[in-house]
Amino acid sequence: PDVRIDVVTIFPEYLAALDLSLVGKARQRGLLDLRVHDLRDWTTDRHRTVDDTPFGGGAGMVMRPDVWGRALDEVLGAGATLILPTPSGEVFTQRHADELATAEHLVFACGRYEGIDARVAEHYRATGLDVRELSIGDYVLNGGEVAALVMIEAVGRLVPGMVGNPESLVEESHGAAGLLEYPVYTKPPRWQEIDVPDLLLSGHHARIDRWRRDEALRRTAGRRPEMIAALDGTALDKHDVAL
Ligand code: SAM
């Protein structure tokens, strides 16, 4: 397979969704080698303990570095990228997805409770491994599993052969144009007394392209003005709508 992904979690069942849809098909077709591991397999006590109380006091429990270390030493190979989902990480964007899609081996370590002992990130970084602490947004989840699912889906659809029609990746929101996608419509042409814009039924491809570009610009300006501000000088031309 072109891509290898490992996920280590105390809730392997949570990742069952990876059997479905495009990622599931890619696994069946052998494009993606994806394995989910139970962190408790690397515990050594009868209770299969993965956490303990925080040094310094405070609420909640922290995941033990020794258990994580045994798991990751076994799962990580040379050249792997270790991803630690955490709300205190850099915010994951399409840029990260593009970058991670070129990696050959991704390992996700899903935290729970108050998170993973900070020495885990420090240790693997010190070994020279590419370690990424990534957040999927400014909110707090109970665990890293959903965050791993989000990142795996965003990366997975960029793996060659995974999305049926690669052209559908080209014009998307957060793509090369730096704009949100224009609104899309399908049949029927009239629904709930709302008509599909006439132009889209006209067959004038150049005019349709122009309309889509303008709608993408308007939508982006209205919803995400900071994305317009971030466009470089060459991104807009004299035919673009005045925003
Ligand atoms: N006490 C931690 C803090 O405030 O940074 C939050 C721990 S959270 C309850 C438990 C786990 O959920 C984290 O270790 C992380 O794996 C995951 N998690 C929670 N929110 C996340 C987010 N926005 N992005 C990525 N992972 C998240």
TrEMBL record:
<comment type="subunit">
    <text>Homodimer.</text>
</comment>
<dbReference type="GO" id="GO:0052906">
    <property type="term" value="F:tRNA (guanine(37)-N1)-methyltransferase activity"/>
</dbReference>
<dbReference type="InterPro" id="IPR002649">
    <property type="entry name" value="tRNA_m1G_MeTrfase_TrmD"/>
</dbReference>
<feature type="domain" description="tRNA methyltransferase TRMD/TRM10-type">
    <location>
        <begin position="4"/>
        <end position="228"/>
    </location>
</feature>
<dbReference type="InterPro" id="IPR016009">
    <property type="entry name" value="tRNA_MeTrfase_TRMD/TRM10"/>
</dbReference>
<keyword id="KW-0808">Transferase</keyword>
<dbReference type="InterPro" id="IPR023148">
    <property type="entry name" value="tRNA_m1G_MeTrfase_C_sf"/>
</dbReference>
<keyword id="KW-0819">tRNA processing</keyword>
<dbReference type="GO" id="GO:0005829">
    <property type="term" value="C:cytosol"/>
</dbReference>
<dbReference type="GO" id="GO:0002939">
    <property type="term" value="P:tRNA N1-guanine methylation"/>
</dbReference>
<protein>
    <recommendedName>
        <fullName>tRNA (guanine-N(1)-)-methyltransferase</fullName>
        <ecNumber>2.1.1.228</ecNumber>
    </recommendedName>
</protein>
<comment type="similarity">
    <text>Belongs to the RNA methyltransferase TrmD family.</text>
</comment>
<comment type="function">
    <text>Specifically methylates guanosine-37 in various tRNAs.</text>
</comment>
<feature type="binding site">
    <location>
        <begin position="136"/>
        <end position="141"/>
    </location>
    <ligand>
        <name>S-adenosyl-L-methionine</name>
    </ligand>
</feature>
<dbReference type="Pfam" id="PF01746">
    <property type="entry name" value="tRNA_m1G_MT"/>
</dbReference>
<keyword id="KW-0489">Methyltransferase</keyword>
<feature type="binding site">
    <location>
        <position position="111"/>
    </location>
    <ligand>
        <name>S-adenosyl-L-methionine</name>
    </ligand>
</feature>
<keyword id="KW-0949">S-adenosyl-L-methionine</keyword>
<dbReference type="InterPro" id="IPR029028">
    <property type="entry name" value="Alpha/beta_knot_MTases"/>
</dbReference>
<dbReference type="InterPro" id="IPR029026">
    <property type="entry name" value="tRNA_m1G_MTases_N"/>
</dbReference>
<keyword id="KW-0963">Cytoplasm</keyword>
